[in-house]
Design a protein that fits this description.
single chain, about 600 residues, six-stranded antiparallel β-sheet, alpha/beta, eight-stranded parallel β-sheet, 11 helices
Length: about 600
């Protein structure tokens, strides 16, 4: 604004860092970005990537982590049973990683197998690899913490000089010094042993140097340099081909060595979506789905630029106090973010091995092509308006997740900061979970009185003259990932799908003022009908899709009208396929 003044103070704290006589030390570079919040944050991430030399070469993982369903009680039998189940069901759930979390080792300072995996960690790795996946393992080699249940805690288990020093001069109890030669040798040996046993996915927890660290074995390094020295050591120990999943809130410091980063707190859904503990009613329980959503809202601008974000696992079945509709909000955030996708559910057990539960996981594979961002970033820490703009040659759209973060009251969900420039002032609105066409609307569209922690996942599609794709339930990105092209050829509409993306059974939703009929596919059992209660919406139902088989769906335009939904569903065989290709509302009440 005219007449506005700003003051910029830049300071550098080198307390405790040795700068010898006559030596000079350059400060960090400084970026000043005067842009809207989202654009400024993405510019910041790209700048860090350019300065640090980012290694964004590996895609987000799709897999399983043992922690949330098994905790430290994880067993070799569980891991091998899960791997065997996935290996036999790869067409539906083509997991890439099976990762053993905490509980396989003797302690956080003795990284040898603890007896539950007596067949050998190398044998477990072979079991996972035989099933077609990458063996993964959790550890925290920089954090030799004596757990509370161990005798004599707290205490240091290594020589005091192995640990970093705080500003007070007191050695840490829980962090090794990544510049101390013997500590470095210990960490390297731990990682290389697991590498030699066949592990190629490493989830390295507690890998941050505390903010009050001031003194290192190498007196010339800053805390940022010490942090990078740690991750350089990690990368050297596990090789370039291994996947490095960091657990470090200081994402800038792990570039360019980590492939991905766990953002936010743990997602322990059994205690409820969010448990208010503070006297003012605000949330006080960090270990719930609520805070990982806030982390996605704040960290989304780094995802896919500085590395792949891991928002933590999603759940496909019973979670005690978290209601299904609330859990679906978290599931939608994970899918819309476009980062890592993992679950801890033991899929081979009957309570998880259900068509709807497996389908919920199918629609997250692969990670969404576009990365979700908080449209209201800088104004709203909750990510109330979260999504992405999808630009395609056959028509643009916006994927939009609206949610209610209020703890005790329903709320109207409105669009305030959604970028509508690419789709125009009027657009189609389609809702994923209820497969509902909500009509043509403008920026005054709203969803009234949504319950606490619940949401709507919508696709807003630009109007067009001919037939247009307005929705898909094959993938949670609603067509942006699984649909490769849509083309009209005289009296035919051809839709090319990625056969390796999305569920094996699902539906495409087409808006057309010209009648559509006669659906055929190169890779699916297919039929088309006119959606009940609409004038121009056609539903193409696909079942039995096969991976790696090219898929083109063809519809006739103007050669007769497809039958109505009610007529089609009188056929029991087609009714069964219709149900198989949908999200069942019964999932929301089954628990």
């Amino acid at each position: 604004m005219e007449g506005t003044q700003m003051r910029l103070d830049i300071w550098c704290d080198m307390t405790g860092v040795l700068v010898e006589s006559g030596e000079t030390r350059p400060s960090d570079e400084v970026l000043v970005a005067i842009r809207p919040w989202g654009a400024a944050m993405q510019a910041r991430s790209r700048w860090i990537a350019d300065v640090a030399g980012v290694r964004n070469t590996k895609k987000p993982v799709f897999g399983w982590c043992s922690w949330y369903r098994s905790k430290t009680d994880v067993t070799a039998e569980e891991v091998c049973s899960l791997a065997d189940y996935v290996g036999k069901n790869r067409d539906r759930i083509p997991m890439e990683v099976v990762q053993i979390d905490e509980g396989w080792h003797r302690s956080r300072y003795d990284w040898r197998e603890n007896g539950k995996f007596s067949m050998g960690m190398d044998s477990i790795a072979r079991c996972i690899r035989k099933a077609g996946m990458v063996p993964g393992v959790w550890l925290c080699p920089v954090n030799p913490e004596v757990m509370p249940f161990e005798a004599g805690s707290p205490r240091r288990v290594f020589p005091a000089e192995w640990y970093i020093n705080y500003g007070t001069g007191e050695p840490s109890m829980t962090r090794l010094d990544p510049t101390q030669p013997e500590a470095r040798a210990h960490m390297r040996k731990v990682l290389q042993t697991l590498y030699d046993q066949g592990y190629r996915y490493f989830k390295l927890d507690f890998s941050y140097i505390p903010n009050d660290s001031r003194s290192f074995y190498n007196p010339k390094v800053t805390r940022l340099q010490a942090q990078r020295a740690l991750f350089r050591l990690y990368r050297e120990a596990i090789g370039e081909e291994s996947y490095l999943m960091a657990c470090c809130y200081q994402q800038r410091t792990i570039v360019p060595y980590a492939d991905a980063n766990r953002i936010g707190t743990d997602c322990c859904a059994e205690e409820g979506f969010c448990r208010p503990l503070a006297s003012d009613g605000l949330p006080g329980n960090l270990w719930s789905p609520y805070f990982p959503i806030l982390s996605m809202a704040s960290s989304c601008y780094e995802n896919g630029i500085l590395g792949n974000s891991d928002p933590d696992v999603t759940y496909l079945a019973y979670t005690h106090k978290t209601k299904p509709a609330q859990l679906l909000t978290f599931h939608s955030f994970i899918g819309t973010l476009g980062g890592a996708v993992l679950t801890s559910d033991l899929l081979y057990l009957p309570e998880f091995d259900q068509p709807q539960n497996i389908r919920l996981f199918e629609i997250l594979n692969p990670s969404a092509r576009e990365k979700g961002v908080s449209f209201s970033g800088g104004f709203d820490p909750y990510g109330r308006e979260f999504g992405c703009v999808v630009e395609r040659s056959y028509g643009n759209s916006v994927n939009l997740l609206l949610w209610n973060p209020e703890h005790k009251q329903a709320a109207d969900l409105t669009m305030t900061h959604v970028p509508l420039e690419k789709i125009g002032k009027r657009f189609h609105v389609w809702s994923l979970w209820d497969e509902a066409y909500l009509g043509i609307h403008g920026n005054d569209f709203h969803v009234p009185q949504v319950a606490p922690y619940e949401h709507k996942l919508l696709r807003l599609t630009a109007l067009s003259e001919g037939p247009s794709l307005i929705g898909s339930n094959l993938h949670i990105s609603m067509g942006a990932t699984e649909v490769l092209s849509l083309e009209r050829q005289q009296d035919k509409l051809q839709i090319t799908l990625d056969p390796d993306a999305g569920a094996r059974n699902g539906k495409l939703f087409i808006y057309s003022e010209e009648p559509l009929s006669q659906a055929v596919s190169t890779n699916s059992d297919v039929f088309v009908c006119k959606q009940q209660g609409t004038d121009h919406v056609y539903v193409v139902t696909l079942t039995g899709r096969v991976r790696e088989r090219p898929e083109t769906v063809t519809l006739r335009i103007g050669a007769g009208e497809a039958p109505g939904q009610q007529t089609v569903l009188k056929d029991k065989a087609r009714a069964a396929k219709w149900d198989k290709a949908s999200f069942s509302q019964g999932w929301l009440t089954a628990w």
